[in-house]
């Protein structure tokens, strides 16, 4: 059954649930903001449902409720952030704040985080940055699910990365993506339904492309574009994991296999103050023209007009801000139970 | 027939050929350096053969031999570069210099170029940056060959982009790629040979994936990873074309269709001084471990070990620096003719 919850109410509910696990009120609100925005965008796999797994991991000691997050500015535009094994979206928001401050001052700012955890969906950070006038490139590494091209052992994460450019006259353009052709969940669904999968999604355990969903579940996700996607996943790990001082490749601990151990994930947050490049009207006019040119492309199927990256999610956000956020009622009840009272 | 030319000799030959078209000696040397490095990497489609097309375009007035390239620093870490319709690799090298200076000072630097032309291969810039201790993200837009996902008209270029991280203890990792699954040249070769192509390479003119190479030549290149690659091509154009003040999407003039008009291409050069993140030994150790983990992946085919992006090209560079650069003798003769004497 589905229920509709207003944004402010869900923000409070998620915050209080995190607070009840010992997270400081201000920190809980920051982390909740990322997850609620994820929910607003319709990215429900990375929405408030994650609160439950954070709570679970804090309980077993895999994540610290009261981390001592330290931001060290090693250059006017570079910060190293030690997440001290706090919840990922909190570390992410601290990185975003640090990069924002540096970019406002100098034009560009980059924050590198180590000792962090899964930081939730990426688009919320990109959106917050865009609303303040910053273009951004933001990424995180992840535990290993992808084999390098030509290999038959997972050594790379399906690292998420997002690129965004603000539009002072309308919606930003936000590309938020993982680097596999398909998510593991899609393969799991095919296996359950007894259906084959396209041979471009995954390999079997020997690194050979397969259409057998069960064989794929024992194998590896295939990156987009073959060696190009392998290269991109590797680059995200170099920036997010290696340069940040975090774990990288097979050094990353898997949340699902060893939830009691710190993941030591890494992130990078690069922000650019595009207001330095020209007046708001100049940028608004160009962004609107850019979107119009793409929207005006004759569609291959007249029923399916050409869309921009993030367009679906931003429309979803607007509608859900107006009409409330649609959620599974059982999830809301579980969050209410975690929050300890009816919020 | 093939000949072998030492790097220094090829550098001189390419420089003098460009000088003879009226380009200032220092500028010609900079532009030649990019093309010679491309040749060293084995990227011969973007090597010294390009000198001929630059010469041709200068002759018909499509490119200025003596541009007044202006670098305007709009923030401590952001420069806007007006290429004044000079040859692309010259504008590119000026951007690289500007971004290097800012990154050395502040940690990060980004240069955005407008009024430029095809800037050659990307890897040489990434390599020069890496040799000086900078990680980089560098990209350019291009004239349109890709239809947006779901569209049936080319509105995006096959925009090249490169990401690189230096290794003070060995080779940098450089990922230099275009965003289509396959290059147009590969489809042309299949058409000539009367062979079908995989249905993932291109669409026909109606935007439907095709295995018919001739239909593909009348259609559009498919980006890697479907909508993900479409998104990436669009992001490169946003950074390189839109934010820089250059032309973007269908506003870019095609070199092949209107060679007499300025292309007004745009580029971006983002450099990060990774020396600020830790001592050289720290970075060298991590980069070497990172490469070792990937190289040690059990290969699907024992005859084909797992490689890193750019590895083939960097090995090629090392060998050709030692043994000389292998070139088509007819090309060398044409360059000698352009240079006006035996170099």
If you had to describe this structure to a student in words, what would you say it looks like?
Two copies of one chain form a homodimer. Chain A is an alpha+beta fold and 343 residues long. The first copy, chain A, has two domains: 2-180 and 223-276, Malate/L-lactate/L-sulpholactate dehydrogenase, NADPH binding domain (Ribosomal Protein S8, Chain: A, domain 1), CATH 3.30.1370.60; 181-222, Hypothetical oxidoreductase yiak, domain 3 (Wheat Germ Agglutinin (Isolectin 2), domain 1, 2-Layer Sandwich), CATH 3.30.60.50. Helices cover 40% and strands 18% of the residues of chain A. Chain A is built from eleven helices and 13 strands. The first copy, chain A, has helices at 7-19, 25-40, 50-59, 88-106, 123-131, 184-193, 213-217, 227-242, 280-295, 311-323, 329-339, and strands at 2-5, 70-75, 78-82, 108-116, 134-140, 144-146, 156-157, 161-165, 173-177, 202-203, 220-221, 265-273, 325-328. In chain A, the strands form four sheets. Chain A has a seven-stranded mixed β-sheet with strand order 2-3-4-12-5-8-9, with helices on both faces. In chain A, helix 4 (88-106) links the parallel strand 3 and strand 4 (108-116). In chain A, helix 1 packs across helix 2, helix 1 (7-19) crosses helix 11 (329-339) and helix 2 (25-40) crosses helix 4 (88-106). Chains A and B meet through strand 4, strand 9, helix 8, strand 12 and helix 9 of A and strand 4, strand 9, helix 8, strand 12 and helix 9 of B.
Describe the structure concisely for a colleague.
The structure is a homodimer of 343-residue chains. The first copy, chain A, has 343 residues and is of the alpha+beta class. The first copy, chain A, has helices spanning 7-19, 25-40, 50-59, 88-106, 123-131, 184-193, 213-217, 227-242, 280-295, 311-323, 329-339, and strands spanning 2-5, 70-75, 78-82, 108-116, 134-140, 144-146, 156-157, 161-165, 173-177, 202-203, 220-221, 265-273, 325-328.
